[in-house]
Amino acid sequence: MLALSTSELDRISELIGREPSRVELYAFDAGWSEHCSYKSSRVHLRRLPTEGATVLLGVGEDAGILDLGEVDGVRYGVVVAHESHNHPSQVVPYEGAATGIGGIVRDVLCMGGTLIGLLDPLRFGRGDLEGHAHQRYVAQSVVDGIGGYGNAIGVPNLGGDVYWDESFDDNCLVNVVALGLVRADEVVHSRVPASADGWNLILVGKATDASGFGGAAFSSLTLDEEQAEANKGAVQVPDPFLKSVLMRATYRTLRGLRELNVRDPGFKDLGAGGVLGCSAELVAAGGMGADIDLDAVHVSVGDLAAEVIATGETQERMLWAVPAGAPTELLLRIYNEQFGLPHVSRGARASVIGRVRADRRYTMRHRGEVVVDVPVDALTSGIRYEREIAEAPNRESSDPVLHGDAAVLLLRVLAHRDVCSREPLIRRYDRVVRGTTVIPAGHGDAGVIAPIPGSALGVAVSVDGNPRYGKLNARVAGELAVCESARNVAAVGGEPIGLTDCLNFGDPTKSPQMGELVEAIEGIGDAARALGLPYVSGNVSLYNESAGGSSVAPSPIIACIGRVADVSHTAGFAFKSPNSVIVLLGPRSGALGGSVIAEVCGADGGMLPRASFGALRGELDVVRAGFADLTIYGAHDVSDGGLLACVAEMCMGADGCNGVGARLEPAAAWAPGVPELAAWFGEAGGFVVEVPPEDAETFIARARTAGAQAVRIGQTLAEPRLIAGGSDVALSELASAWLTPLEDLYA
Fold first, then answer.
1. Is the pTM of this model over 0.70?
2. Domain range for residue 155?
3. Which residue in the list 82, 85, 366, 443 is annotated as catalytic?
């Protein structure tokens, strides 16, 4: 099914001066899709900050690279890629999620990076309610697909987040983040150099088949349940075991090319648009063109149509551009002989399928016939739309008045699907494979790894975005997502150095939904500028809407990458010792919009909390400094469920068995003027910090000097109890409420 409009068909004919061939139609269909060309969003994305001192390689290639630091005279970068695989995961959940991991891994590989970690922010429908068996199946299968692929290729899962909401009943969101490590002097680019005239284009990986044909167009359309079976063919088939071999062969090839002094090869992932999309982008980015012979493409069956070979999105494939002669011979030998691709997967191999040409013309031949002959820029420059933008709806209203017993409400909040322990899901992932994990997923606000052998230099990473907030105000939701992600990195001792974004929205042809996208972009841009953080990669996923008109909650999802100077000076969120002082950073407010407590109490309306960027900068600095000089034991950010849920989690620890209790002062002592239940459960951002008693006053004074509000709110106890708000609750009771909900749902 082609997704081109009548006006776009007319535009193609104007560009090439004739009616397009069948293969050219499919080529433009992929290249001009929303998924590839960002035709509705690109003009607005230019407002995001993308430059800064920490940027080694900015937006524009398969992945961005941030400056991690120097070890023994060698500068290292963190390769960062962030993508979505939403439509495929709704239609074929296991395969859709698994191939999302496969694609993001290739993005990192193609920058010359060694894979060091994965993250998976997920949004599911109401799988916890009767009558929603399909939503439950989608969630189970997505988690299994991520674990099945990531575990098989031996890359640790460093974190993610999960939310459930009725707006995702028909459109789940499966976003994926991948990190790699690369020496700054060994970065590979997803473009050919200016000297590449006559270079060979070499396709490596799985034999091309019909799976994934039309995938880019499918991901740029509204989902239609009646077309579900037909759409399954647009979803690729994963092969993680072949990918594992491809990864090792690629690492060896990179070393071999450096030994031959091939310093600037071109290397790109085959994603949307298949052979045609990848090769056109690879050469166009270097100001070149290409000749492609479709008969040279290794295929799984002999009767594939030319358009399928050209644009099908078969998984586990990448494209090299290297000089003829020794470099080409080396590459073919490594993939086909040393690593034996033809023996790993039927039809897999490395094949020379074309060459680079200097005249910016792009041609394809099939069985002796020219089936594509167009200016390469016509394929890759895409088209741009100035969509009609209506004022984004702001659904905030006056804050409700809450009533109830704090202890009873805390148990209900801890059992809420957006607060309860994610351990039943994330235990399906290998979090420590490769032996570099310092803080595993679930044990800290961010995952932490030490990827450089023999060095204490570490990477911290978190990914965040609250759809309950997006429903009320897309702009503020974007700001708060950036703030939370940065806080999470600081909460393990990391220094935030850069961001990625994945913007998941509905139909851009509907002006209110386009307005929400634009507002979210403004929000994440303002927050990033205020915190001095650049975006180095990202993705936009639109048309997340069912045929019935149900759109997902506006969902800007932000990943923050941090540098940890010494991983021995980091810690998870669990309380470490009795008799510590508990310090709150950040003021409380009565804002209850989008909060878990409002839903638990059946209350409508409310205002979203607002970020104070100046104060947040001070909070980030003082928490990081506390880890550096060991004047704090640990920290946890205040987010879903509010302050009381945050402290309860610190008491329980990741497994619910930590057993360090806490006694908190009355809310009136540290949140004057704020209603008591709003102080306990409101979700205004901040930190709860555990400080040694002898360092408490120094820490509080340092925080205030930095412009952060800091107040002592209690102390830790040897007894396994949480005493707060006139209540005294055993940690075992809290743990039972917190640990069990997802055991029942997704075990």
1. yes
2. 19-380
3. 85
